[in-house]
Specification:
homodimer, 459 residues, Alpha-Beta Plaits, 2 domains
């Protein structure tokens, strides 16, 4: 049984158009972390505002912030019906290392039923599903929707989401809604409809180590001048042991173990650890705390990772320099009930206590987001599971994600609403990596799932 | 008492011209480690070949190699006189970090009696002293020289000097000489004439750590995927302890302690450790093995340094990636009687033994050069000390250098000749660092010292 909106979304020529529009959006290199792309962020915001206006949304506005703009619009003419707050982000991760992309990151290319581009799945493609679902509903409803809708899109998700966090905290009345819909997660396995009910928080830092006042020749000064890379190596090696256990005192004090029921459900998910190791991670062995499953380690245990170590000489060949300064980009993923401010202080104090002789250490906080458990005892989550079951023909599973979507915690805190995290990415979509992709069939199934979900909520 | 050659070199208009010519050479960005500068290396070689021809040297030739070319010329018409092999290098270190230069690295600029540019002292400026000394001698001698001269210049000193090493090994007859003259070192203190009689060897390596097959999202995979930066930090922290003692088994087995006499001479050098720490190094504290003086630590003790750690994300802001691969550029300075091949094997075996779970490690050798003690019991060294004393009015001191000039070992091995290392750099000349400079007065005093030295040898 298909509604007119579902028929609209299943129409082949509409689907081709949806995909072409998405490609247009993917061609905009809206890399939020790089200042030189500031205008591209604005272009992406403008693209979305124009499209939301075109499909019939009202009060479309590009809201300036201290960083990249927000895009807001609404349609609030369904009195008595619930209000959904649709969220997405139009910024993307940097594309480097560029030489590992098979086709250029900002020239979207179809291969094997996928569309390859930076942002294809994270989150332009998934965000655009919301826009196209609203288009289908508005077209079928002759300009009306089955429920009230607010849309709020940001351009800083990949750099910590500071502006939207402020906006949400300062405008709870303007954003009044019954629940949020977020499509920035993945399905546990292909064809397995999935709702995400937990997220890790993120604390992103830099440790800056300074030794000499200028770069020095390692022949002349090696043996007398402190080496900031060596200092960072010493510090990093003391933050986590070889098994992946974090050594910061009191780090695990507030870590909450998932319920036996949740752990049991994770065990029954279709998961082959050897296949995951070989085909998804591709390393000789997996790492992490002994005694915990992969799901526990990536969903409900904290972690600490080094992302890059700028400084010194990184070109080809040999340069014999003792750099004056070196930096380590280090983040922690935290889990319920850890508190980001508290953890950052534990981390920062411990790092400072490890500063080796001759080296000055600064610990910088780049961004911070809380971990999150989503309430599932509400009719929105129930409607979502039913909608996805209709599209996929299978029961929806509940999982967590090891990633961080800080805005979900902000919605809970300031708007007092739960988020339905209905994502259509796949585990091998190469998020944050070269050759990011989105399975095109999931783009269409996502649009249809959202249409059916919003229809059920508004019924 | 000044010879005609010295008078020529002291002439103000000649001196201004020498400096202008040097500036022209310094404007050529002959960075040997970066493939994009290949043509600049050739330009620098051509500049020198043209100049050597112009001043009256014979058999000038640009010799192609597998890498950057050599420049050769000679003048061999002084039968019965000794033959000097004049060596220098026209390649330079990369200029990064560019933003720390007060004036651009390839726009030579005069400030406070110094000339600032990449290569000013290492080694274009010092090499050019040889050329100008020969010009003065040829001008004063109406096209003749007081001794036989061969000149051999290379463009790969900063990348290991592979081509010249092969050329020297394969052409001992063509390079037959009684001693080599090398000006690629520094004076112990301003106005203190210095001969260098010892060099550390250099082993430059890369440790490449590979975990996953592609870059992974640290949210999704943090806790399960191995992190190559963490692996490198663990390895590096086990290579050297916090006091600077290298922990590679058997590393120190062949280290030779300098003679009591040499150690005593080092103690009487004008050296203020606190001034060195504050003004030359500029760190809170000095580091290095307890119980050894700064001179011992930098001249006669081996060291191990990290120069850079390419891989992952090094841009501004936050990227939450677990990189598939990361690299550490690590070099060791070795001292008599260590052997570079043996030490590389000890290092490589130890690094491989430290490979953490899930990580594949490769150890790459980029270049290798032997440590060196110069024989001082010959008349060339004696003539050099006298020449410098005449110019500086002070007794010449003998020191060692912590740096590496691999060619000196090659000259000893294949040509069986000692090198006179007569350098005119200063400790604060910022070798291999931003704002490299050469004190202009030392450029002129160097030219005059070399003239007087060659005259004495040929007398």
């Amino acid at each position: 049984m298909s509604s007119a909106a579902v028929t609209f979304a299943q129409d082949k020529s509409n689907q081709q158009r949806f995909l072409n529009e998405l490609k247009e959006l993917l061609r905009i290199p809206s890399v939020s972390t790089l200042p030189e792309h500031k205008d591209d962020l604005l272009r992406a915001a403008q693209f979305l505002a124009d499209e939301l206006k075109r499909i019939g949304m009202e009060n479309v506005e590009i809201i300036s912030t201290g960083g990249h703009p927000l895009v807001y619009c609404d349609w609030l003419k369904a009195p008595g019906k619930p209000t959904v707050l649709s969220y997405g982000h139009y910024d993307v991760q940097p594309p480097d290392p560029l030489d590992e992309w098979k086709t250029p990151p900002f020239e979207p290319t179809e291969r094997n039923g996928n569309i390859y581009a930076r942002g294809a799945v994270d989150d332009k493609g998934q965000m655009y599903m919301h826009v196209k679902a609203l288009e289908a509903l508005l077209a079928a409803g002759k300009g009306t929707l089955p429920l009230n809708v607010r849309v709020l899109l940001e351009g800083e998700e990949e750099v910590g989401g500071e502006s939207i966090a402020k906006f949400v905290a300062n405008n709870p009345a303007r954003l009044k809604a019954d629940f949020a819909l977020v499509s920035d997660t993945e399905m546990f396995a292909p064809d397995l409809p999935t709702l995400n009910v937990g997220l890790r928080g993120l604390i992103y830092t830099e440790i800056e180590a300074t030794g000499a006042k200028i770069d020095l020749h390692s022949g002349m000064y090696g043996g007398a001048a402190p080496n900031p890379f060596f200092a960072l190596a010493q510090i990093i090696s003391k933050l986590k042991d070889e098994n992946g256990k974090i050594l910061i005192p009191h780090f695990y004090d507030r870590v909450q173990r998932p319920s036996e029921q949740e752990l049991q459900a994770w065990k029954s998910l279709p998961f082959n650890e050897e296949h995951y190791r070989e085909h998804e991670v591709g390393s000789k062995e997996l790492t992490g705390e002994p005694g915990f499953s992969v799901q526990e380690r990536t969903w409900s245990r904290p972690t600490l990772e080094v992302h890059g170590m700028p400084g010194g000489f990184i070109g080809a060949g040999a340069k014999t320099v003792i750099p004056a300064k070196a930096t380590a980009k280090i983040s922690m993923r935290i889990v319920p009930n850890m508190n980001s401010e508290e953890v950052f202080k534990l981390y920062s104090d411990f790092v400072m206590s490890l500063a080796p002789k001759g080296i000055s250490i600064k610990v910088k906080l780049l961004s911070m987001g809380e971990p999150m458990i989503i309430r599932t005892d509400n009719r929105f989550v129930k409607a979502a599971t039913e909608a996805m079951k209709e599209v996929f023909g299978k029961d929806t599973v509940f999982i967590r994600s090891g990633g961080s979507i800080p805005i979900v915690a902000e919605f809970e805190k300031h708007l007092k609403i739960p988020s339905v995290m209905m994502g259509f990415g796949l585990p091998d979509d190469n998020l944050h990596a070269p050759n990011e992709k989105f399975h095109i069939a999931n783009f269409y199934r996502g649009i249809e799932s959202i249409i059916r979900f919003l229809q059920k909520v508004g019924a």
